[in-house]
Amino acid sequence: MSFALGLKPWMTKPATKAVLEALIAKGGPDCVRFVGGCVRNAILNRKIDDLDLATTLTPPSVVKALEAAGLKAIPTGIEHGTVTALSDGQTFEITTLRKDVQTDGRHAVVVFTDDWAEDAARRDFTMNALYADASGAVFDPSGTGVEDARAGRLVFVGDPKTRIDEDYLRILRYFRFLAWYGKGEPDRDALAACETGRALLADCSAERVAKEMLKLLAADDPRAALRLMASTGVLAQVLPQAEGLAVLDRLVTIEDEQLFENEPLLRLAALLPADPATGEALGRALRLSNAERERLVQALGTEPRLVSWMSPKAARQAVYRLGNSVFRDRVKLHWARSLRPATTPQWRGLLALGESWHAPVMPISGKDVVGSGVPAGPLVGEVLREVEEWWVDSDFIDDKLSLVERLKSVAQGLAF
Q1: What is the DSSP letter of 206?
Q2: Domain 157-240 superfamily per CATH
């Protein structure tokens, strides 16, 4: 199928042209093409995130070509043929054409080639095995990549089992791309191969599994892909803690109806039971960052109890104890767990309060406690906490004199 993108703005930017011209000066006009996601997304009129290039030049030649043009060359994966170019603050991943000579499902031994068809044959899906030259002419070695991309058909290049045996993580990539680009009925051969090979995912690194899952959950609507993951046993393989899809289903519906931004980590929490220990265990198993794991654990907490009918005063107390971001996460999850549509305005009101109200700072400190006659030491913290409880229960009264009086009352009741 003949197809041309034409010249796109990202192709003609000075930063892009500088990289292309550097490589072409070394290897000629046919030595370099855009590849993969940027070509696919351009065909689909979607946002272009990264610009990847494929070239017939070997990595050392790529480095020499970039440096000769005054561009920075970073050997990010040179043993696998990848050099990153830095041009006008923008990065371009440049990979030499290659073919696999040995794979074990996690790592590959490659040799470089100048054959575009051989390079395409080792890629995962036909919609990703697309190339475009500097003029915007598209090259489709599989013969169906452009049609598959437009139709939302996610099809492995060649035999699905062979592609999965080369890299087990392609099972998760299949569902991730299905969530982002899939339409209609999934390819039966691809789905069967993923189901048959699901146990192979146990050999994939936790970091790579987590990255794929969070990218999948970042899709506008990942529910159909997740249902297929569940029905094939793939979801249970990578996320045995998952309780079901019902809460996530309602969370996505809420996001759509309320025009909320989707948040992959919160969607991950929606797949789990309301149990911080489960979140902690999963966060460690997937080797999430400390911040990601902490957010997951906090989102799954159950105290203080949040209900749609809680008073503004009780909501402010919860915000004070949890913090705005944790309160927001928990309201959304509790809202998604609620089975009563009539409570929507109440949950929306709580969320608005949690986003607009920020806890004040208590007007007294440990210095005031000591000034009231309490000796320095552990008792200061004890007194301060008791006064704080009264202040919170008084709905954060903005009256230091009242707090001082309460402090004196508490201090007088202690035996030093």
Answers
A1: H
A2: cca-adding enzyme, domain 2 (1.10.3090.10)
Strand 32-35 with 52-55, pairing: antiparallel
Cα angle 371-376-379, degrees, rounded to a multiple of 5: 100
CB burial readout 344-372, b (16+ within 10 A) else e = eebbbebbebbeebeeeebbbeeebbbeb
> Are the C-beta atoms of residues 224 and 176 closer than 8 Å to each other?
no
Residues of the chain with CATH 3.30.460.10: 1-151
Where b means 16+ CB within 10 Å and e means fewer, 270-297 reads: bbbebebebbeebbeebebeeebbebbb
Distance CA 153, CA 137 (A): 22
Tokens 């004199």 map to which residue?
401
- The fold adopted by the segment(s) 1-151 is Beta Polymerase; domain 2 (3.30.460)
Q: Measured between alpha carbons, how far is 351 from 273 in angstroms, rounded to an integer? A: 21
Q: Is residue 140 left, alpha or beta, with left meaning phi > 0 and alpha meaning psi from -120 to 50?
A: beta
pLDDT, tens only, 220-273:
999 999 999 999 999 999 999 999 899 999 999 999 999 899 999 999 999 999
In the Cβ-directed half-sphere of 55, how many Cα atoms lie within 13 Å?
A: 35
pTM > 0.70: yes
Instruction: Check whether the bond before 378 is cis (ω within 30° of 0).
Output: no
In the chain, the amino acid numbered 97 is L
Domain with CATH 1.10.3090.10 in the chain: 157-240
Q: State pLDDT tens for residues 158-168.
A: 999 999 999 99
Tell me the C-alpha to C-alpha distance, in Å, between residue 21 and each of 111, 171, 322.
Answer: 25, 37, 55
Element containing residue 112 per DSSP (H, E)? strand 108-112
Identify the CA nearest to 270 among candidates 330, 184, 318.
330
Distance CA 54, CA 143 (A): 19
CA-CA distance, 293 to 288, in Å (whole number)? 6
d(CA 397, CA 391): 6
Rounded to 5, what percent of the chain is helix, strand, coil? Answer: 55, 10, 35
pLDDT tens, residue by residue, 117-133: 999 999 999 999 999 99
For residue 229, give both structure tokens. Answer: 């993951």
Neighbours of 203 (CB within 10 A): 11
Residue located via tokens 């197809």? 3
